[in-house]
Here is the input.
Amino acid sequence: MEVLVASAVGILTATGLYLVLRLRTFPVILGMSLLTYAVNVFLFASGRLTIGAPPILTDDAALYTDPLPQALVLTAIVISFGMTAVVVMIALGAYLGTDDDHVDDPIISDEEDAL
Amino acid sequence: MTHWIIALIVLPAMLAPFIVLAARYHIGIQRVFSLVGVIALITIAAGLAWTASDGTIILYQLGDWAAPFGIVLVGDMLSTLMVLLTAILALFVLLYVIGSGWDERGRHFHALFQFQLMGLMGAFLTGDLFNLFVFFEVLLIASYGLMIHAGGNERLRAGVQYVLFNLLGSTLFLFALGSIYAETGTLNMADLALRAEMIGADATVGIRVASVLLLLVFAIKAAIVPLHFWLPSSYAEAPGPVAALFAIMTKVGAYAIIRVYTMIFPPQLEATSGLEDVWLMPAALVSLALGMIGILAAKSLDRLVAFSVIGSMGMVMVAIALMTPDGIAAALYYIVHSTLAGAALFLIVDLVKSSRPSLSLVAMSPAAGASLTAGLFFAVAIAMAGLPPLSGFVGKLMILDASFETPFGVWVWVIVLAASLISLIGFARAGSIVFWKAESVPVVEGDEVFERPHALSYGAVGGLITLLAAYTVFGGQAQSYMMSTSQQLFAPDAYIETVIGSHGKMSNPLSEEH
Here is the structure.
């Protein structure tokens, strides 16, 4: 269980980072999504992994899972979903305007620069 | 329990949807409501700062839930100072926006502006790390909208970079919060301060990783080298008044570093020692040098000002990295100064932009209102480069004085003084090319004629300069206030006691565990 979760976080982060470094908007946004999935799983695991226990704490509860990380993950999912939508819209605008989907700055030649 | 502190967040949060829904097509009504809202924010923030100025910690438990379980807003001297600074800056930016008509060039400017203020106020006031993340996101998502306000291809491209960089920063923030929660089981700042001390010497790996991750996140916000790459193009491409408001955004990073690394991971904490002097100090010195060299190397006025922001953040971080009460006091004094001066510079860049074909540093024929703009640029450049008589000089003197007896003394003195000289040359060069040489270029018939900027635009910049002058004249009072703020930060027991000790729902006085 621990190995599975840990390797899932690791693989998602690694592929996400690789895609982010591609410097064109589509792979970068995909990479960002993978990174947010990775961090969601990571946050979920930060309250320790418990199998088959409810997130309810009572005085006589022998086994329970920590409810707080679940609340944190929900918040993080909502925020990252909204942010991804925003960045898709801005990136589409930039692409349609310039017909270029590079994320990095274009190289400016010295002649243009002098203007 | 005073309810005024939540008004700072609720008021802009209510005004923004009201402006979108009810005043959508009436720019006049939007302006009135936005202005009234900001003036109300200044009044409330000033009242809170007055209450907190005698060392009182203002605590607000949301929903009356007791501290480690519920989210709290805390107003101490530092928070209320930053909140007041934000509100005052917002007023002048708003006056400029109305004067220059930037809010008419796209839609929903005022609504986004209010959301931005809500995020800033919340980030300064919250006493919970996860809540800090949420308010970071609020201020970021509003800033994305403001950054690409009025559109344009260049601006959209810079906007994509800005959003992606900040999304990466947010992801890193969540990783940091996850590891902190896994190590300590809490995200309340006061509770964290208590629990970080309890971690045994043999089990500090997790908390060390978390504290470094957190420092990275705040360094991204504060644009410290080598995490500054997002700043120059996004600040240069953003609309002038928006960039002026963003002058406070880098300070959010500085604020968060001061808050977290004086209270949760203080310098005397064994587990995270060495973070400031081994890592933060060299990075700060490099940012300072790089920012000032950038001023000299910039080929257009907007980039020049963006690099001066990096340089001034480097200066602030040098003072913070000393981690002494004197250093933090100097940093706070410089934060207020550089926010006002940086904002004024961005507004002046916009004034120049509206009266000149481009911002590149080549001589062009003089335009209407150039002499007044030149005078304002001269005054603010003096402040930013840190020459007497304005407050940049006082702030720099305080930083030099604070670093004198520390092991970094020599480095700080050499780099601060050399960087000041370089920035002075850079500003002098830019000013003489843009304003002075203009007289030697004849006006060609048929060229585009630029209108003189609105008087209110000049009024906003003049107001900021007046504030800078007042900040210098009352430098003594300001310095003693910053000193007591810094002493309060280095004695966090009162803060922790107020946050953890106050009763609310879920706290049972009979079986207290904390």
